[in-house]
Design brief:
Blueprint (H helix, E strand, L loop, with lengths): L2 H7 L3 H7 L3 H11 L6 H7 L30 E8 L6 H6 L13 E3 L7 E6 L4 E2 L5 E3 L5 E5 L6 E11 L5 E7 L15 E5 L5 E3 L2 E3 L11 E8 L19 E5 L2 E7 L2 H7 L7 E6 L2 E8 L7 E7 L3 E5 L14 E2 L3 H19 L6 H5 L1
Parallel strand pairs: 7-19
Antiparallel strand pairs: 1-2, 1-14, 3-6, 4-5, 5-18, 6-17, 7-12, 7-18, 8-9, 8-17, 9-10, 10-11, 12-15, 13-14, 15-16
Helix pairs in contact: 1-7, 2-3
Length: 367
């Protein structure tokens, strides 16, 4: 399901690489992987399958799409599940070399694994939160803590819904949008990286400050809508914006799976925060627009996020079948971000390989 957009993305590599004066390298790279033409899936099937070294074969994932025993994002580090990169150079040499056995795997031989659907993240959550088997429902435990979705966006208009399935007395939720550095062991809106709407009294939160927003709040049975609008800065129009390739990070192995390890640089991120003119967050309740809760929010990548207090249960809907998709403003469901992010990540990975081609040598690492 992920091959067609990946191969399609290769069409744009030469054009993008030309902008950074790497056209010859891009052409050689395209020749290695085979420029897409005709039926992409048939082309993939026809490619020869050599015998792979066990380190370059990813174990089969469980039905929920993520390893059962996995590291959590905590203690100042984040972990990104990795898979072998079929476009990386020297894969065959690494497979066949006995000198590489038992030694660290070069990170550029792997790439970030992109989920095929928007779900609640197994690893990007407080461990005490309980996720359903389909990873669309979450139940709280004791104090406030948070979970983010698997996919984030940084420009455009996007929407998702949350339905409160159960809210016992004295429990509560804060739901909204969070950047990747928002504290998972705190309510959403605790720091500068998140914006939330609380069930109690309908208060909106950012940076631990609550503001009156909507009388009455919300409770069991209510379906809430969360819209975010992130326009592109005028000075960035026409510029290529791609996600991190992570290929220069350290690979760590946990229970047969490999992860890129990323250190959180919170203070640096705080200093870099700046308002995004024209951006806003709008909330909906049972199909009715409650209003714009925030304007000119901090620039960055935002993920659907929810924090829960005690044992309430909330089900998320990332699309396509929404109960109350907004009619007053054009927007995309979060489910539509999947293919776009796959293509962007693939371009980022290939550009990294193009720009660092001269440094990716096994003999320089092992011999």
């Amino acid at each position: 399901q992920r091959l067609d957009p990946i191969m399609t993305a290769l069409f744009g590599v030469a054009k993008v690489a030309a902008r950074i004066h790497r056209l010859p390298q891009a052409q050689r790279l395209l020749e290695k992987v085979g420029a897409p033409s005709g039926n992409f899936r048939e082309k993939i099937k026809q490619q020869p399958r050599g015998k792979n070294k066990s380190d370059l074969v990813m174990p089969k994932l469980p039905p929920n799409g993520y390893p059962l025993d996995h590291p959590y994002n905590k203690d100042g580090y984040r972990y990104i599940l990795a898979e072998p990169d079929p476009h990386a150079p020297f894969r065959q040499e690494f497979d066949e070399s006995t000198d590489c056995a038992g030694k660290p795997i070069p990170a550029w031989l792997y790439r970030k694994l992109q989920p095929a659907a928007v779900l609640l993240a197994m690893h990007d959550r407080a461990p005490q939160l309980k996720l359903s088997d389909d990873r669309l429902c979450v139940t709280g435990e004791k104090g406030y803590c948070m979970v983010r979705a698997t996919h984030g966006i940084e420009e455009g208009s996007w929407y998702y819904e949350a339905t409160i399935e159960d809210m016992p007395e004295n429990s509560a939720t804060r739901i909204g949008w969070a950047q990747e550095l928002a504290n998972l062991q705190a309510p959403l809106g605790y720091d500068r990286f998140g914006y939330s709407w609380r069930s109690r009294k309908g208060t909106r939160f950012h940076e631990s400050r609550g503001f009156h927003f909507h009388d009455g709040g919300y409770g069991a049975g209510d379906t809430l809508g969360f819209l975010i609008e992130l326009p592109k800065r005028k000075e960035k129009e026409g510029q290529l914006s791609l996600p991190d390739a992570f290929k220069d990070r350290r690979l760590v192995k946990v229970k047969s799976y490999l992860y890129f390890e990323e250190k959180d640089e919170v203070q640096q991120a705080i200093k870099a925060l700046q308002p995004l003119p024209g951006s806003r967050i709008v909330y909906y309740k049972n199909g009715e627009c409650v209003g714009t809760a925030w304007r000119d929010i901090n620039e960055g990548m935002y993920f659907p996020a929810i924090s829960l207090y005690k044992s309430c249960t909330v089900r998320l809907n990332f699309g396509p079948n929404f109960k109350h998709k907004p009619k007053d403003v054009p927007c995309l469901g979060m489910h539509e971000s999947v293919d776009k992010i796959i293509v962007q990540q693939t371009l980022s990975d290939i550009l990294y390989l193009v720009e660092n081609e001269s440094q990716m040598r096994l003999d320089a690492i092992y011999f």
